[in-house]
Design goal:
The structure is a single chain. The chain is α+β, with helices and mostly antiparallel strands and 410 residues long. The chain has 2 domains: 3-61 and 106-194 and 292-361, FAD/NAD(P)-binding domain (3-Layer(bba) Sandwich), CATH 3.50.50.60; 199-289, Alpha-Beta Plaits (2-Layer Sandwich). The protein contains 11 helices and 25 strands. The protein has helices at residues 16-27, 52-61, 67-70, 106-119, 183-187, 246-254, 260-270, 318-339, 345-362, 376-385, 393-402, and strands spanning 3-5, 9-12, 32-36, 47-50, 72-74, 76-81, 84-90, 101-105, 124-126, 128-136, 139-152, 158-169, 173-176, 192-194, 199-207, 215-220, 224-230, 234-242, 281-289, 292-294, 298-299, 302-304, 310-311, 368-370, 405-407. It has a 7-stranded mixed sheet, with helices on both faces. α1 links the parallel β2 and β3 (32-36).
Length: 410
């Protein structure tokens, strides 16, 4: 039997975007509940890059990230043409929000957000799966399956979620942060727009005796490679190549988990001039990446945030950071509307703004042109360089100017 609950905002999904949305809302005094399907977050044990403005937003909201111990600060991004340093872009010199980027484990980001929510009396209800979303007048009707664990499989046992009951909600707003395969997006009939060619992204995290200090390094050649320093003398090295590249296609088809030998091979093949001591590989992944955006940011009172709304370049964690930014802006708009019932047009404006900003990031490589005095290498490769920079908006424009790039005329 379904149970009917009422909450001002229901957030489906306890990834960074969903947790941040709940925290930003609660910070403004809005009632919020968070549900998430997963039992644990063991797959979060890898590093991400938080952009300077996102670090500031989370800190302002009370998410204490323990940057002194759990993170590695990065204040400079160095762009390379083979062995030549083309440019050193200093993040603290950007015009709007000076400060370093932070490389830290995703689980630290999640734990910090959940702790900040606990302090504001908001608990994440786990084993809760978004099952159905319908529009009801100016609200939404949401069904959430409550799951329990059950052993399944023959020979090799594994755990599956079994529905024990269904809870019905009619929140004022639904924020669907339920990932790329978003149930809400599919049930609301929101289309998806792919942008550009599909790519294969291969990432490694490993111990190394070499520490690049507060610098990240971007190498552009037959592959685009981004090398980020992580805490405790570790490195994160990500390669991006066309998904049709034979080795990448084979790895993707086989769902291959790259190992230390694969890392050494990738460095020899694509970065032969970079001599990195390779210790234990603690994490690796090869995945298919298709940049794209949802055709709409919302339907009525149901909103998409995070990877439910976009899939952006992974080389500088753009999907995560943009999701937090959009959650911040949406929380402010929902709060404004709650205080002024006649201000519903603000939601429409927010939806249009969110989609426009997401499209700009998805197409960011196409939005700039080289000035006459730009380095020829930058001019030839700007579509591949710009998506690797850990900034957006006005901060991105500032770094682009350092590369002698300017926005194309609208």
């Amino acid at each position: 039997m379904a149970r009917k609950d009422r909450h001002s905002v229901l957030v489906a999904g306890a990834g960074p975007a969903g947790l941040a949305a709940a925290l930003f809302l609660r910070q403004r005094g809005v009632d919020v509940e968070v549900v998430d399907e997963r039992w644990d977050a063991r797959d979060d044990d890898f590093h991400v890059i938080l952009h300077p403005d996102v670090v500031e937003r989370l800190d302002d909201a009370g998410a204490r990230l323990d940057l002194a111990h759990a993170a590695h600060p990065v204040d400079t991004v160095v762009v390379h043409d083979g062995t030549r340093r083309v440019a050193a872009l200093r993040l603290h010199e950007t015009a709007v929000r000076p400060g370093p980027a932070a490389v830290l484990p995703l689980r630290v980001v999640r734990d910090s957000l959940e702790e900040a929510l606990r302090q504001r009396q908001v608990k994440v209800a786990r084993h809760r799966r978004l099952a159905r979303v319908d529009r009801v007048s100016d609200r939404v009707a949401v069904e959430v399956d409550v799951l329990d664990r059950d052993s399944a499989g023959y020979g090799v046992s594994h755990m599956e979620g079994v529905v024990v009951r269904t809870a019905r909600h009619e929140p004022t707003h639904l924020i669907a942060a339920d990932g790329f395969e978003s149930v809400a997006r599919q049930q609301l009939g929101i289309g998806w727009r792919a942008i550009g060619a599909p790519m294969a992204t291969v990432a490694f995290e490993f111990a190394s005796g070499w520490t690049p200090g507060p610098e990240a390094h971007v190498y552009v050649g037959d592959a685009v490679a981004a090398l980020w320093p992580a805490p405790h003398r570790r490195l994160r090295l990500t390669f991006q190549l066309p998904a049709s590249t034979p080795l990448m296609a084979a790895w993707l088809d086989a769902r291959h988990t790259p190992d230390r030998a694969d890392l050494a091979m990738m460095i020899d093949a694509h970065l032969p001039w970079v001599h990195l001591p390779i210790g234990v590989v603690s994490w690796s992944q090869v995945q298919w990446t298709q940049v794209g955006v949802a055709e709409r940011a919302c339907v009525g009172a149901a909103w998409l945030v995070g990877e439910a709304a976009h899939q952006l370049s992974p080389l500088a964690s753009h999907s995560l950071n943009h999701g937090v930014r959009m959650a911040h802006d949406l929380a402010a708009t929902i709060d404004e509307v709650a205080r002024d019932q006649g201000a519903g047009e603000r939601l429409a404006h927010q939806a249009a703004r969110a989609r426009a900003q997401t499209l700009r990031l998805a197409e960011v490589g196409e939005l700039y042109q080289a000035e006459p005095d730009a380095d020829p290498f930058v001019a030839a490769n700007l579509r591949r360089i710009v998506p690797t920079l850990p900034v957006a908006g006005l901060e991105l424009e500032a770094l682009a100017r350092s590369l002698r790039l300017s926005p194309k005329p609208m």
